[in-house]
């Protein structure tokens, strides 16, 4: 990796219940997700990167800048960092618009990342500008906080579980805004989460932490498509496939996608979308939406049938099994009952057909 396009951090930092001990290099571009259970060291790592903690044994480089070493410590206000906390930290005595205007005044020098008008439109803030923070919902406050972080013209954007304090409906409302930000602005993002669902929507790179140590640091799509990816603990086990939009069929109201990394590039037909042919997307497929057949059936209403090989089986609660299926260079996951596995006499190494009932499009 080019040193001018990376963030490197090596530190040893004793905490109350563990020692944060890592030597890590991540891209200074796209979205890097720091993923792990509560208490694994995610927020401690982020606070160190932000300069909110002065750690004795730490070497931190951002691109070609030394932010911390044995001889140097760059304070937070000189790092040009945008920080979005779990709870939106807005000035209570200022309206949303005044909070944003304050950010513009203290923006870092250089070419602006965005303008006030652009970020207001992007995050849908027009009708909120005259309201005070206590008049806004949790999701609205976070949108204002994100806009403020962008307006300071950061060279790095840090997000510490920005959806953690929101209910499911508010999370669903805010996530599309986060997706737009991550794709539209050329600023690296470090995003902390313990939700694989959030990570799958946003991440280009993933760092997995456990008790202060890095257990995995990899391209996200590569990581999630490895058989050892610790996904079985998730409530909604799913697969993530990289696909390309091929065509739209107006008569059927469907869009055809092909899977990357497969010689014959089998197709998936999904509800029609507004993406242009040739555009690459991610498809999220719930394991509960995948069934298996020993042969390729034409007499079925399921139109998405893919050739796969069973590579592992893992027992789940309530008489269920999670099967990992090799699909070209990707992993497809299926959640089946023990009865179905026994009835079909399924075995590791067996070639079967996966029937995909539905998939969610991730732009």
From TrEMBL:
Keyword Cell membrane attributed: yes
A GO molecular function term, named singly, is:
molybdate ion transmembrane transporter activity
InterPro entries in UniProt: AAA+_ATPase, ABC_transporter-like_ATP-bd, ABC_transporter-like_CS, Mo/tungstate-bd_C_term_dom, ModC_ABC_ATP-bd, Molybdenum_import_ModC, Mop_domain, P-loop_NTPase
**Pfam families, sorted:** ABC_tran, TOBE
Question: Which stretches make up the Mop domain?
Answer: 299-363
EC number in record: 3.6.3.29
Q: Which GO terms describe its cellular component?
A: membrane
Keywords in UniProt for this one? ATP-binding, Cell inner membrane, Cell membrane, Hydrolase, Membrane, Molybdenum, Nucleotide-binding, Translocase, Transport
ABC transporter domain residues: 4-236
Name of the protein described by the UniProt record:
Molybdenum import ATP-binding protein
